[in-house]
Amino acid sequence: MGCVYLAQHLDLERLVALKVVAAAGTTSPSLLSRFREESRAVAAVTHPGVCHIYEAGESKGLPYLAMEYVEGVTLSEALRAQLPSPTESAKSILAISEAIEACHQAGILHRDLKPSNVMQAKNGHIKVMDFGLAKRLHAGDEHKTQTGEIIGTPSYMAPEQASGVVKQFSPATDVYAIGAILYELLTGRPPFQTPDLMQTIMLVLTEEPISPRKLQPRVPVDLETICLKCLEKKPQKRYQSAADLAEDIRRFLDHRPVEARRTPFWEKSWKWARRHPVYTVLATVSVLTLIAAVLGVSFHVERLEVALNRSERLFQGSQELGRWLVNEHIPQIARLRGGSTQQEELVSKTLEHLQRLEQDVAADRTLAEYIAQAYMRIAEIQSDPFFATDVRLQQAVESYRNTLQLYEDLEQHAGADAVSLRQPRAEILIRLAQLNQQLGENSVARKEVHKASELLAGIPQPDRNARLLTLKADWLTVLLDREQFSSQDCLDRCQKLMTQCGELKKSGDDPALAELQAQLSLLMADVVETSQPGTFANSLRLVSEHLADAISYFEEPAQQDLHVVWQQAQTRSRLAQVLATDNQQKKADQLLEQAIEQQQSLANEIPESPVITLSLLKFLEQRLALEIAVPDLDAALQTAQVHQQFSEKLFLSNPKEFREQFQRSHGLLADVQRLRFRYDAAADHLREAIELARNDGSRQQQAILAGLLRAYAELLAEGDRQHSTVPERLKSLQQAVAFLNESLEIYEKLETATQSPSESPYWKSVALKHQLETEMEQLKLRTLERGRTTIPPETLDAPKPVQQKQQ
């Protein structure tokens, strides 16, 4: 809403925090109204825990507030540095509660309490600040917030605030936010947080927070109880005032019994039941809980067993739950994206529910089919190519196998309807085969494809989908067995499948069919590209044609599926390489630019995906090589800088996993700057890369460090060759030799010295060192012979190592 500056108040002769609206003429009336409301709100409160206002006014059309300057850090900054102890957390919450109670007594609701709006002064005192969303209690229409308008920060909002129901705002709204701050102080994270704002709001409205003690077992039970009471969904169940909360915190600090009571088990069950009424019945029956809720009525478990055991009502309820899982719950999980902790927790909980539900599927085919579909949807989340890891793919395999087992069990009891289950079984087997092929389990994949083909062959009158599945199975067979066929045989089989796809297409366009045609084109390109030399005349032309066909076939499914967009970009990049090899540079450049544009769009839309970003980095390196070859060094510098921007994002998301990519970016920038004769800039980037390598003792990073040290030595030797005096040149050569010595020591520790001289980085370093030492000797000898220059003693001092910056 405004900018805050550190300023000197001339009349008061002290430092103040000066808050002003960003720019005159650019603020809305409602923003100015809130700014003025903040000054009135804070001025009405006199409490040592509230940031004081010294002066409010307007200068050249800009409203401003001169506020108390608090030297210290926000609670948010303090949390990032270190998680406080439970006692320290309680003391902070006590101070916040007392300050907020003073606000409430003055008739002010804060409405935006969060760790970044609470200062921790150097003397340890707590100060509440930023009343930009403050609201007077019992205010009339002069206040601009309307019902339905959501204001505040979702992770710290009370449910009534998240829903936008203005009439329900009360002191309990701020109590909830204090509880959310306490939760974060205890666990290191807010009660609800997702990458998506609306998803976070939905969690605030519908879900209970994870128990703090589950995240941090050291949290005292009483403090957890206080925290969860603040976070009750209904305002009337929270502390009714910040003063009540402060009093219970004092009781905790004084080791007295707290007033808050732990939520009894039956109440937890009731809360859960209100959100998942049907599943509550199922869970109650299976684990014999004491109380359950079905359609708003409570039953004791013994009566529930008698009344609902295998009853039609239970089956109908199970089917309702199945529909909810498949059509609503799991798609919401998929929208979270990225294998986030929240997504993994939700997937794990859903799998637990599905495993319990399986106990009731024997007599209910509809429920079994819903559970099978639910497992399949979970597998799709786990196998998302944008977040693919071996662990996630293995989890997806397990989920698909659960789906398959359910269909196989159903088939055993289906009688005459058993034939109808062959097609879904075949589809799951094909998906399993594709995953196992990705995991390198080709023998397992072959068995699954063979079984799928048998099932599809046993369908008396296959529909269009069954025919498409048959074509997919045949494509996978060629893909998995291509080494057993000659190149020509593979191509003939693929071409036959292409013809069959064309026949199937006559009955209507289908994105799935077009994607299969694209995969067949890619397979044919692979076969031609890897065939024995001389097997195919004009092989580059054939590869180009097949890749171009694949790009064209991807066009239709790419309109609906971002994963296909990614595949299309990969294919464009590959075709660009082939065309560049065939001296068709202009077409290659155009295709590569299209690929980069697609990949950048994906990276911006799904920034959490390392797979997308890594592909983009590869494409940028491809463009960089072309720009250096031209050469167009200004364009190359821009490309290298974009490469660094994306690699830095990767590195910050996971320094251990993506350290090498960030190092490579610095190396590429160093290469470009070296070509531009910007040796100082090149040296800066190499030093950054060396620093990153020094901070990781792994064998791989040590090998990279040795190579970087050699590159730095080369740069030192080259950088001042033309423009330095003899003493300067000698000093640079000495430094370069010192870095080469360090590089050689690392190579020797890694036992790479025994590799052949033509291939070993070790011997390259030895050769360079010999070359530089020879030049040094020649320079010294020439200088002594001419008698023109006396070499200063400091020139021969050992060089200083590359300085390491503090991480």
TrEMBL record:
Region annotation (Disordered) ranges: 786-807
Keywords tagged on the record: ATP-binding, Kinase, Membrane, Nucleotide-binding, Serine/threonine-protein kinase, Transferase, Transmembrane, Transmembrane helix
Enzyme Commission number(s) of this protein: 2.7.11.1
Keyword Transmembrane helix appears in the UniProt entry: yes
Coiled coil: none
CDD domains found in the cross-reference section: STKc_PknB_like (cd14014)
InterPro entries in alphabetical order: Kinase-like_dom_sf, Prot_kinase_dom, TPR-like_helical_dom_sf
Enzyme class at the top of the EC tree: transferase
TM helices/strands, residue ranges: 278-301
Annotated ranges, domain Protein kinase: 1-253
SMART domains assigned: S_TKc (SM00220)
Gene Ontology MF terms in the entry: ATP binding; protein serine/threonine kinase activity
Protein name: non-specific serine/threonine protein kinase
Species lineage: Bacteria, Pseudomonadati, Planctomycetota, Planctomycetia, Planctomycetales
Gene label: pknB_4
